[in-house]
């Protein structure tokens, strides 16, 4: 089953008690400290932009807004739902996804879980970059990096474009890695559990697949298995 379909089913189930009920959307700007990594969970959509000034804005139904937490822990911005701080009614009527708009000057890691989504509206530049997705989540990024470490599990999708000189990829559990538009010199890709990977490699590709998984590539690399 495709990851996008699984995400839709999980989100629909999560919000089934709230069908047809909604309140007005509100937005709130948040003051946060410096960070270089983002972690999002709990059916939250994050829209990323690389810019000179840090900013965070949350959009959600008015009675849910206070339960959406945006906290910097170490160098990581953690975005999640704190259901203990919201009423039972607001939890049952939270029928729309929460959106969080994040602008930051530097970023080297994104992690998403629990039917959440992260996407960028600008390219992100870094030496090393890590992407992790699990639990029917989705990441869509444009990157300009030297070294990329990417992993997806539990029917998650990674959609990457741009450039990564080196990439190391591990996908499992009916996940997809769609990176034909991410140009790289060398790549090491492992896929298992009915997963699919699509990579563009110029120099050398190390690939290993199992359990009805496939690794597809563009370019003319030396292939090691």
From TrEMBL:
<dbReference type="InterPro" id="IPR021255">
    <property type="entry name" value="DUF2807"/>
</dbReference>
<feature type="domain" description="Putative auto-transporter adhesin head GIN">
    <location>
        <begin position="34"/>
        <end position="221"/>
    </location>
</feature>
<feature type="signal peptide">
    <location>
        <begin position="1"/>
        <end position="18"/>
    </location>
</feature>
<feature type="region of interest" description="Disordered">
    <location>
        <begin position="206"/>
        <end position="225"/>
    </location>
</feature>
<protein>
    <submittedName>
        <fullName>Putative auto-transporter adhesin, head GIN domain</fullName>
    </submittedName>
</protein>
<keyword id="KW-0732">Signal</keyword>
<dbReference type="Pfam" id="PF10988">
    <property type="entry name" value="DUF2807"/>
</dbReference>
């Amino acid at each position: 089953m495709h990851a996008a379909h699984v995400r839709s089913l999980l989100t629909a189930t999560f919000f089934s008690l709230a069908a047809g009920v909604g309140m007005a959307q509100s937005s709130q700007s948040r003051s946060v400290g410096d960070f270089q990594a983002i972690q999002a969970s709990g059916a939250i959509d994050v829209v990323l932009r690389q810019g000179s000034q840090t900013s965070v804005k949350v959009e959600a139904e008015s009675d849910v807004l206070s339960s959406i937490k945006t906290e910097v822990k170490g160098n990581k911005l953690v975005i999640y739902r704190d259901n203990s701080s919201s009423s039972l009614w607001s939890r049952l009527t939270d029928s729309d996804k929460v959106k969080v708009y994040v602008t930051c000057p530097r970023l080297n890691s994104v992690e998403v879980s629990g039917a959440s989504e992260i996407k960028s509206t600008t390219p992100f530049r870094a030496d090393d970059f890590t992407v992790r997705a699990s639990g029917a989540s989705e990441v869509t990024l444009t990157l300009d990096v030297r070294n990329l470490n990417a992993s997806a599990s539990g029917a998650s999708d990674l959609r990457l474009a741009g450039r990564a000189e080196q990439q190391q990829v591990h996908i499992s559990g009916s996940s997809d890695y769609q990176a034909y538009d991410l140009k790289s010199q060398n790549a090491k890709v492992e896929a298992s559990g009915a997963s699919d990977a699509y990579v563009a490699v110029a120099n050398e590709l190390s690939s290993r697949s199992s359990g009805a998984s496939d690794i597809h590539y563009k370019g003319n690399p030396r292939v090691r298995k």
